[in-house]
Amino acid sequence: PETSSPSVLDIVPVxxxxxxxxxAAAVPVARALVDGGLPAIELxxxxxxxxxxxxxxxxxxxEITLGAGTITTPAQAEAAVAAGAGFLVSPGLTPDLLAAMxxxxxxxxxxxxxxxxxxxxxxxxxxxxxxxxxxxxxxxxYLKSVAGPLxxxxxxxxxxxxxxxxxxxxxxxxxxxxxxxxxxxADAIAAGDWERISKLAAEAAALR
Length: 208
Ligand code: 3PG
Known about the structure:
208 residues; 9 strands; KDPG/KHG_AS_1; (R,S)-4-hydroxy-2-oxoglutarate aldolase activity
């Protein structure tokens, strides 16, 4: 079975999920996260500049663990790794997407929100996955319930998590980290307020 090393779940307590609209913001946002104590980023493939942003961060902020999120097609998995992504995250799971992410050779977190999907990921030989959309799909109580029959499955819950609710997830034995966009608010990025992003990152880094 495929093993993910190093474990994507154990790099930082809060994985910054980042949307970059303006390519020029990519490198300063990555540097602000590193400065705040969160040397990891899940850059989402939701904007036209996302692949260029991955390339820019890979070239200029090599100390950050760089991942690509919102991987929804096999082609995106390949393109993200070619652009420098060292790990991949998908919001959900299909057999083709799982096979494509496995074929890239980089660690990845397939998205799950049901026990059957968790079983499909375990069947593929993986034990680490995303739980999305976390708050809407049952939140921390859901993960606590899943730990009964499937204690080997470990999660990065993402979707609707806030600084106030992160700790309830992080205290669970089957949660490695949580993910969220709250560290990099769109208005802070638009204003070039890198200090605010560093401060939010520092607060999140202290959550565990
Ligand atoms: C994701 O793709 O993981 C979600 O969009 C996270 O967004 P949120 O933290 O704003 O819910």
